[in-house]
Structure formats: structure tokens, C-alpha cells
Amino acid sequence: MGIEKHEENSYDRRKRIFEDVLMWRRIRKLRKQWKAAGVAVIAVLWLYGCQGPYPGIESFQPETGSLFIGRDGVIASGMVEILDQGKRENYQQENLLRFVFEEVAGFNESLGAPKKAQNEEEGEVLPAAVRSCTLQDDRVTAVFQYKDSASFLAFNQNYFGVSERLNHLAVSTVLEARTQGWLSAGKMVKPGKGTELIPPEENELERLDKGQMLWIETEQPVEIQVEGAVRYMTEGVALVKKNIVQVPEGVHYLIFW
Asked: Using CA atoms, how far apart are residues 118 and 101, in angstroms rounded to an integer?
């Protein structure tokens, strides 16, 4: 009986290792896919949710890999992935959660922040944090929050190479952006009637005294959602909805509130 028990445990262990290998292969494949797409991704997570500072992110329900910028300049990234048919049973919730939490917590610790992966109410805002993750059928959606643009770029450069596609990202108030010369850095347009985009009136931008301004430089298109509505954008940016734009390759600016 002792020998039979040992053989059974050994089999279970080999089976678990095999399943873990399949899982990590899939994660590496997802990393490459999303690195090529220029979007931040950590891992595929099973049904899981968490809350933390800045409730405005709750309005961010990404349908594709994208970025979210809040009224206070908070930055989040969204990942959406469809699992291969028949592969779902290869994933283990505990292993995936442990992997993503260790990655995020380790990054935060390297910057002198607490070794944690989630923001807490009334606590210090972490450089990177797991905001929410869900699995519905074979569709995985994950949202990650960042303390600032420097944290976003540093995290993705160190772990997933997003900075190879997204070269620059900065958020500032319109008043601060004016002193930095952002308002005159590109030809701006604003939403008109329907889908029409029209130029602002003379000195209209100089009179602005509210709102946030985003400066982004990317090597390929990226979707961005803002909290509020996009009021102005550089030529070439496509307005998908009042708060969602498709930013093409190059240097572009958005003003929103």
C-alpha cells in the first residue's frame, strides 16, 4: 500500500508540472503577441477582482488592448485576449495569480515601494498595481493601474518591452502644458457636428484654463480612453467616441476634461 501511495503522488506531481509547463508556454506566447501590438500585458488571469485608489477607472471597460487616462492624470492599461479553444482547462488560478502578483510586487519593491501588487484604500499608491481581472467564457480582460507615466513606461520596458512601441507618454494639466510649449507643438482640431473635426478659433487654445493634456509618441496605432470627453486633438487622431480615440503612429496630443 505504501508503494502504491508513492506512485500515485508521483503521478499527480508529474501531471501538475505538465499542466504548469503548458500554462507558462501560453503566457510567453501572449507576451510576444501583445509586445508586437504595443500594449501592456502581464498574464492571463482567471476570474478575480480588486479595488483600490481612484474609482474613475471603473468606467474603463476595454474591448481591446488600450490605455486609460483619468481627469487627475491617472494611467491604466487594458488587456483583452481570447483563449485558444480547448486550452482553458490547462490554466490554474492559483499559479496565474501567484505569477502576476510576484511580477508586480517585485517591480514595486525595486523602486523602493512596498512589495505589494494591489493598491489599498488610504494606502500608498503603488507604481504598478493589478486593478481588475475577469474571465467570461474564453475572453480574458485585465486592467492595470500605474502611479504615473514614468512607472508605466518603466514597468513595461523591464517586463514586456512596450516602450519599444510606445516611446513617450506624459500627462499634464493644460496650464502646465502651456508653459512647456505643448499647445503649439502640433496642429489641433476639435469635434464639430457629427463626425466632423474642425480647427479651433484663433487664440482659443491660449484661453483654456482647465483640463488635462496628453503627449504620446507611438510607433503604431493605440486606442486611448479618457475620463470625460476629448475636446482637442492633433490632426490624424480618429475620434471613436466622445471619450475614445485611435492614435496613429507619430507624436500626438489630446486635451480632455
From this structure: 8
